[in-house]
Amino acid sequence: MSALPSGSSRVYVEGVGLWSPQLADFAALRSLLAGATPTPTVRPAAATLPPNERRRAPESVLLAVEVAGQAVAMSGRDAASLACVFASSHGDQPITDYMCATLAQTPAELSPIRFHNSVHNAPVGYWTIATGCHAPSTAVAAQRASFGAGLLEAVSQVLAEQRAVLLVCSDTAGSGPLGEVTGCRQPFGCALVLTAERSSATLARLDLQLTPAHPDSALDEPLVGWRDGNPSAGGLPLLALLARTGGRCQLTAAATLGLQIDMDHI
Q: Does pTM surpass 0.90?
């Protein structure tokens, strides 16, 4: 992971993606925070994937590709040219649970397809193949700090390379004994397109500063419950600022490291 320079570092947001069983996209979050009742959603559409791939892909891939597609569409950029950072705390928990149970009971019956989809960087692989992207791609995992760690990596790449970067953070619900350990109760995914310079598509300006570890910013219900139920929802304090009028939030980026973010709409 690259390091931010000392002092405050500035990047710009051009696109936002969001999906959960309660919120189909970023517009739904804005409506919720304005007092509206969101319409429940059933399954991430993941329209970026070809139909055959959508039928075969697990939920973890559909979720990540859906929010990535939303953010890139909002930015108006070409997905094939965007470097990307895909973060996830646990990867595909249902497949991991399946593999552990199968290996313990009937190892000869392990599905090669499900094994293929179990790797942590499977979503970024599906995304880059579907979009024809040959730009650099990174997969990040940092337990419940995965959103902050992914954001730190994406911002570092934006500043170091002076290029736009797609950040995606997503986790599916846990299952079996693994679900009991992780406490991940529902799927959640979000994405940002970050740039080094302001453009006609810019939505907001982010000024970020590294700090010692600090509790993540408080949230109102029901957002706090959704954050507790999925580590990728750790990005909700920043998403809430983007959906409102700006302000400051604090996110965890590692066990001893935090990110202070000041956000202004443009």
A: yes
